[in-house]
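Can you give me the bound-state structure? Components:
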Amino acid sequence: MPLPPRGLQADIREDFLLLGEGSGDAALVHYLCETRNITGYQIEDVGGNSKFKDYIGGVASRPGFHRLRGIIIVADCDNGAVSAFDSIRKQIKKASLPYPENPFEWGRRPNLGTLATYVLLIPFNGNQALSGALETLLLPSAMQHLSQYVSCLEIWATCANISSLDASHRDKSRLRALLTAAHPEDPNLGLQYALSPTKNLIPLDHSCFDPLADLLRSLPSTL
Amino acid sequence: MALLENLSADDIGASVERDYVMISSIQMRNFRCFENIETKFKRFTFIVGKSGTGKTALLEALFLASGGNPEIYFRLRRWRGFSENIELTGTRDSYESVFRDLFYNFNQQAGIYIRTEDPDRGFRKLEISYEGGATLDLPLNATGTQAEDSFTVTPITFKWETPKGFKSAKVEVVENRFRMVGTKEVSPMVFVSPQTQNARQNAVKYSELSRKNDADRVLEALQGVFPDVEGMALEFSSGEPMLHVALRGLQEKLPLVLLSGGMNKYLSIILAILTARRGAVIVDEIENAFYYENLPLILRTIVKLCRETETQLIATTHSYEFLQSVADVMDEKLEDQSALLRLEQGNPSEPPQIRYIPGSSYRSAIASTFEVR
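Here's the bound-state model for the whole set.
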């Protein structure tokens, strides 16, 4: 089932609300949960970093908010786990919600009820955030599955001096080149669509996703 | 019209820091669908919730508490659609059936308690119960003596209390008619709903404003949204005074009731605000009859008038378009003066709960296209 389109967001019906900072983050978690049979999350796409402030600020207005036990925010490290986390934490604090002190831990405040928040930064290795972006996490699966294009990709990467870029831009470039080669009917295919199992471009049963799947499966029980 | 469309938050009074509210909070027990709730109000409070969760009942509680005579309960009955003619069949149940839907779960043993807080005038409390009153024999025959099959009921009592003291009023039956004596002091509150709007009421309010040389403000507000209106006046129609408007291009004035429902509804709200200075106007289903494109302009004008007259606005709505207009009009400078109340009901056997949502959170929710109703 595809990720529901952005529109009038419905009532909160699950105990855990998982917000993808971007559409790719939300799609990854959505399809990963679907593929690996992980339940209990209401997954939504915030619509980008610029919309995060209003999204988190307005979440308490939604019907069903009072049933929530946890809000999990999934965001890219974008080469700086510390700054990415600080930016998210500020917004959570401004929305008068409990906020965590560090990524990968629940933030609770006794005077703010039982609700807790959690910031999940990707890519991560199961213990801590790594440098890079969502594409960094996706690349191993795409490269293995689309191996027929890898030798061309490496030649192009060398010619284009991709290795001189930071990890985030380097992996974004490499994944885009792979998707363009494998999906010529729409070279600009967005990640939120490329992640759909029906596209068969980035298999979500790859072991690179195991740490994320394990975390999502166990997270509710840690609260 | 263009002038009003371009009104900024400053123009509509946001720069004035004082946030007048007549009712800052309410507590109530055993009233209609509410077992026990309390909530705060802001100067501009909008109430949402699914059908049957008690939005209108909350307005009724405010209205009853603001009154001083049980007669207003009979008005609420009429607005709810009950017949004006009440026939008592000469049983205790017959008498009590008139009031039973006021009580949570129809339990008339538990009294109703409603208390509102007014920062300027102090608290206002209403208790409705069958306790402590003198007994009343029913039925009475034509000579006023007790009939052979008479029985005894305790009349229902409405007791209002303010810092100045309390007044109670019983609903008695005399010669098969209800009789009730009210108190003089009432709060300045006007209830506008599809059932309360009528031409006569509008004419009376307009006349009241006209006497005080304040009718021009009505015209100005009307023209702000309906620019084809060139003038308005009270004229006799079939022997009855009615509001008429002069429209651009027409040779004669037309009775207002012949024009759009939206114009009539808007006028009812404007008249209510201008006649309830330093009071509160409560509006049921505020968006009804308004064309969606007019909603922001209508709301802007209403907000402007409320600020000018120091009037509080409490309104229910089902319309997302209206709520978007609220988020637009109640910008950064006004959001602290607004709030959303949502009535939620887990399942039909449970009483509704009320959620208070501050203006800032509400505006963020609308910006994120969240369903908030």
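A couple of observations. Chain B touches chain A through 20 residues (CB under 8 Å). Confidence is low (pLDDT under 50) at residues 1-17 of chain B.
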